[in-house]
What does this fold into?
Amino acid sequence: MRIALALLAGLLALACPAAAQKYNTALGARLGGGNYGLTLQQRVASRVTIEGIAGLGQREYSGTVLGEYHFGILGPSLNYYFGAGGHLGNNKDTGRFSGLDGLVGVEYKVAFLPIALSFDFKPTLEFSGDDYARFPTAFSIRYVLIKRKDGIFSRFRQ
It folds into this structure.
């Protein structure tokens, strides 16, 4: 057991210095727990992204903004991340709601394709509304709009 824990700790230590993402901007769909929506992820620093989520459920809609920190796992194609942020929304039955969000997940950038797949756990703490807390999981598929080697503004240069 100690050997397995030492091996796991060593692998995680080796993974942390790796570059965390292979793209700057990605747009896609998010599915999970009876909700679906659009997700836009923008890299703002070496391992930091800002993600916006526009969500839609059977009786509600919401907008979420998250700051995320990424860590490479054995290279830049596979990484895990965690973050936090907030959300605002409206439920047809109970009215407006707002709260804080946490996030932990894993992401895989498909080799040779402009596709990123992710699965995450995003617990929320509500300030208002019927639910005091939610614990949803979701799957996202994103199309990479701007690769990492391209600069954010490289498409506008001549």
Q: What stands out?
A: The chain is about 10% helix and 60% strand. The radius of gyration is 17 Å. Helices lie at 2-15. The longest helix spans residues 2-15.
